[in-house]
Design a protein that fits this description.
The protein has seven helices and four strands; from the N terminus they run H-E-H-H-H-H-H-E-H-E-E. The chain is an alpha+beta fold and 181 residues long. The two termini are 19 Å apart.
Length: 181
């Protein structure tokens, strides 16, 4: 979201935009996911445990293909929630979730003047607020479907051998008025 907005505000300072598994490519409000306050997000974050983080990462980032070596990433996050700055970590996470929910960038993509390379895991199923969403929306949405439907100037996909475990796909936005990435 930050890179897209920076490119919009300062197009002369940006040569090209490369987004890897970016946030803000879906409008969860319009899909029917209920709003929740920053305080509610904060309370939820303060309840984070190693097991809840592991379950989320297994289902969301690793497409249920978990290996024991991934536990180090869980422990890193758990450490942030257990340390002396845990309230700040939880508050910043709550603000981030609120921003993703209330300020998606997908509607602004058409205004980016620079070439954009968008790389997204084809198994990515990140769904902000999924736990509060109606059952028919849970895991039915994913970044690929929403962003592919809204990319300006056409796009093409191609599998990437660089990201075999994530099923990464690259979207190259083509514009006749700009040079290619």
């Amino acid at each position: 979201m930050l890179a897209a907005r920076y490119a919009l505000l300062y197009p002369g300072e940006v040569e090209q935009v490369v987004l890897v598994n970016p946030i803000g490519l879906e409008d969860w409000k319009s899909l029917g996911v209920p709003w929740r306050s920053v305080d509610a997000w904060y309370a939820s974050e303060m309840q984070a445990t190693a097991e809840s983080i592991r379950q989320y990462e297994q289902a969301t980032y690793y497409a249920e293909q978990w290996r024991a070596e991934y536990d180090r990433w869980v422990e890193m996050l758990v450490g942030m929630y257990r340390g002396p700055g845990k309230e700040l970590v939880a508050r910043n996470s709550a603000l981030l979730y609120d921003m993703i929910y209330s300020q998606p960038v997908l509607y602004e993509f058409g205004r980016i003047e620079n070439p954009v390379l968008l790389m997204i895991g084809q198994k990515d199923n990140t769904a902000i607020g999924e736990d509060a969403a109606p059952p028919e929306l849970r895991r039915s949405s994913g970044i690929i479907r929403a962003s592919a439907a809204r990319l300006p100037g056409g796009f093409r996909t191609r599998p990437s051998s660089s990201f075999p475990s994530s099923g990464m796909r690259r979207f190259r936005i083509r514009r006749s008025s700009t040079r290619r990435c």
